[in-house]
Structures are given as C-alpha cells and as structure tokens.
Design brief:
three-stranded antiparallel β-sheet, QueA-like, 2 domains, alpha+beta, 16% strand
C-alpha cells in the first residue's frame, strides 16, 4: 500500500490517493486503525467495544455513542412492550470531534455526512406520529438525520415523511425548531461541541447546564463511554 498527497484541503487536512493490490475494504481492515475521539488515549483491544449491537452498514468514522447503551436483550424487551424501533443510517464523519471555534456559532461549518432513511423506517415513524405517539431519537446522529429529512420535506404537525437519502451538513443550535423528534436519548458531551449545542437547542441551555451540574456532582461518566440521559 502506498499513498500520495494530492491536495491540502481545509484546516490543513491532506487528500491522499492510495495505490494498493487486492480489495480496498480488506486492505483497510488489515492495516487501518479505528478513529477514536481525542480524549480516548489508549488503544481499544476489542473493536466491538466501540460498536453498537445494531450496526450494519460500513462507513462511519465514529460510533453513535448513545446507542452503545443498548444490548440485544434490551432491544428485545423494548419491542415486547409494543415499542416499535425504526433503524436509519448516518455515516458519522470526523467532524463530529471538531469543536466550534468561531464566536458566531452560525458561522461554524459542518462537514457533510451521508444518510439513509428507508421506506420501512418512514412507515414506522409516520404510523407512530399519526397515532399520537412520540418519536424518541437515540443520539444526536439519529436526530440530525430525522431533522435533515424533516426540514428538506418541510414537515409540519402530522405531515408524513418520505424515504430519503443523501448528504447532510445540518447544524442544530439554539433557536432551531424541531420537525420530527419529540424526545432525545444522549450522552454527556464536550463543551463547545456541536453536540451540546444540539442538546441545548432541544432542551434549552439553562436546563441542560443544570443537568450537567447534577451529573458532575453525582459523578456521572461523560463522553463516548459515559452515561446517558433522556430528554422528554
């Protein structure tokens, strides 16, 4: 495997052209290492430790960490209670680790990420909304996907979603009006991150700061392998 730097792009990142023999996915799997958040300084011995049990499609550079709390047993118990689970795809990019460094947050540039919302998922979501149920999003990644589709399709009230796929760079911060998501399960995030801004948009900054203060006082775990909260 050889690589050639063909361009220097935004923030000093390099665009590299690789030359290799064999199947690219196999080359990556044998030589590459899983990208981890900057605050995880040790190498994970078990790759599955940073993987959800329902992961399916290759493409993300990071795990949707709110989903790490779910086990096969827990998912089964949820379905046994009559709660329907809709599955979607967002290929999380390295930009998820990127802090907001500009003074005016609306000037922050989000990297684009690929998403897919299937017909099966939209049917579940539409039926739930029609019957007066709540859409509980697991993580900021699922939230950004649903709100991307809801915004693009100009969803209001009980309007139905349609299947969709494409690229999104949606940046959700205080002042945003949510179109699809009613409740949010999420971990405790880094300050000055786009993730905590999304949470603050969903549940107002003052309440979020009180929740974080309580989490610190009670010694909750933060970040990727930390605890989660549900915002109703």
């Amino acid at each position: 495997l050889t690589g050639e730097v063909v361009d220097i792009v935004e923030e000093g990142n390099r665009l590299i052209r690789f030359t290799y023999e064999g199947i690219w996915e196999e080359v990556l799997d044998s030589l590459g290492e899983m990208p981890l958040p900057p605050y995880i300084t040790h190498k994970l011995e078990d790759k599955n430790r940073y993987q959800t049990v329902y992961a399916k499609n290759t493409g993300s550079a990071a795990a949707p960490t709110a989903g790490l709390h779910f086990t096969e047993e827990l998912l089964k118990r949820i379905e046994e209670k009559g709660i329907k689970i809709a599955r979607l795809t967002l290929h999380v990019g390295l930009g998820t680790f990127r802090p907001v460094k500009v003074e005016k947050i609306e000037e922050h540039h989000m990297h684009t990420e690929y998403y897919e919302l299937s017909e099966e998922a939209t049917q579940i979501i539409n039926e739930t909304r029609k019957n007066g149920g709540r859409i509980i999003s697991v993580g900021t990644t699922s939230t950004r996907t649903l709100e991307t589709v809801g915004t693009a399709q100009d969803i209001h009230g009980t309007d139905e979603l349609s299947p969709a796929s494409g690229w999104t760079n949606i940046f959700i911060y205080p002042g945003y009006e949510f179109k699809v998501v009613d409740s949010l399960i999420t971990n405790f995030h880094l300050p000055e991150s786009t993730l905590i801004m999304l949470v603050s948009a969903f549940y107002n900054r003052e309440s979020v700061m009180k929740a974080y203060e309580e989490a610190v006082n009670e010694r909750y775990r933060f970040f990727s392998f930390g605890d989660a909260m549900i915002l109703l």
